[in-house]
Amino acid sequence: MVNKTDEVLRQFSGYIIKRAFNVIQADLNSTLKPLGLRMTSYSVLSVIASTAGLRQSQLADALSIERPNVVQLIDELEVAGWITRNRDPSDRRAWVLTSTQAGRDLFRRATIAVQDHDARLTAGISDTQRQVLIDALMTIEANGQKGETNVPVTIPKP
Amino acid sequence: MVNKTDEVLRQFSGYIIKRAFNVIQADLNSTLKPLGLRMTSYSVLSVIASTAGLRQSQLADALSIERPNVVQLIDELEVAGWITRNRDPSDRRAWVLTSTQAGRDLFRRATIAVQDHDARLTAGISDTQRQVLIDALMTIEANGQKGETNVPVTIPKP
DNA sequence: TATTGTTATACTCTATAACTATA
DNA sequence: TATAGTTATAGAGTATAACAATA
């Protein structure tokens, strides 16, 4: 039965996204906890493990995280021995981020867990619906960034 | 052009939702700021203004906010004169939340701003796609709440 | 001058344990 | 004993200003 409260919330799409996101984050964080990762640190590790020659500023852009907040995330992964920081010889202001073998092994195991989590939470959603979901979310993100000064990472439609 | 970083992120649907949500929250908060509201306080006001005889625990359930966190949100709205707390005569432990005239006026104006924000961010998304988006997000939320007591999956070492 | 990374800091949201007063 | 609300607190994410080193 749909009561008035539900009606109100259904018209407020931002709040529906918020609630879905909270559920995803909580589930993913408990999924990753045994591996020593959280949603954010997993996403950082995944970008570093998948991209050669990555700088912190590029990482920040790729994940839409502010640069100051990237610092402590990187520190965390470096202390754990999953990535290394090396001076970029062509620009001594910058650090090049590289995953270690241990970092890549962890990323591989974590990805299996993340895929399982993803399958669990998207159960009952068809591939077509899933594609609409992803496209719609990317449209929303792009619409929101239209009025901003910074240029987001471009992710083209398939 | 699709680089490897983009590919990785596209397979990680939780992160796409996260980024869309961050954009929505930032846009909505700046939309509501001139009215003295934030995303969360607007959602609280909207439920109170739309539901008669509401208790704090019901509000917490409706918005999936923990009860302790509801307290300060309510305090905020009460101090501003937008809602009142009244003892429930049938259960003296509980408070009944009621919006004031000022609260309802604010809610009406805020809703116009929120609808404008919503239309701006969902531009380019058809009604059909929007319905798929909402349904998919609600499915995800429901899937996540199924195994509330869930134990993380054990991941085999490679 | 501008950019990369950094420090410091502040605000918001979320989550849990433990308390009180009522039931 | 159970529930409604509360207090205190801790953790995480996000955002901005200001700085040093380098370009």
What report would you give on this structure?
The structure is a homodimer of 158-residue chains. Chain A is mostly helical and 158 residues long. Chain A has seven helices and three strands. Chain A has a three-stranded antiparallel β-sheet with strand order 1-3-2. In chain A, helix 3 crosses helix 5, helix 3 crosses helix 6 and helix 4 (56-63) packs across helix 5. At the A-B interface, helix 1, helix 2, helix 3, helix 6 and helix 7 of A face helix 1, helix 2, helix 3, helix 6 and helix 7 of B.
Short description:
The first copy, chain A, is mostly helical. The first copy, chain A, contains seven helices and three strands, in the order H-H-H-E-H-H-E-E-H-H. The longest helix of chain A is centred in the last third of the chain and has 21 residues.
Show the helix and strand layout.
The structure is a homodimer of 158-residue chains.
Chain A: H1 4-10, H2 13-32, H3 39-50, E1 54-55, H4 56-63, H5 67-79, E2 83-88, E3 91-99, H6 101-121, H7 127-145
Antiparallel strand pairs in A: 1-3, 2-3
Helix pairs in contact in A: 2-6, 3-5, 3-6, 4-5
Chain B binds a DNA duplex (23 and 23 nucleotides) through residues 22, 25-26, 29, 38, 40, 55-57, 65-71, 88, 91-95.
Integer average pLDDT of chain A:
90
Number of DSSP strand runs of chain A = 3
Query: How much of the residues of chain A is beta strand, in percent?
Result: 5-15%
Looking at the chains present, what oligomeric state does this protein adopt? homodimer
Largest interface: A-B, 74 and 69 residues
The main β sheet of chain A shows up as:
3 strands, antiparallel
N/C terminus separation of chain A? 39 Å
The helix/strand series of chain A, from N terminus to C terminus, equals: HHHEHHEEHH
Q: State the secondary-structure class of chain A.
A: mainly alpha
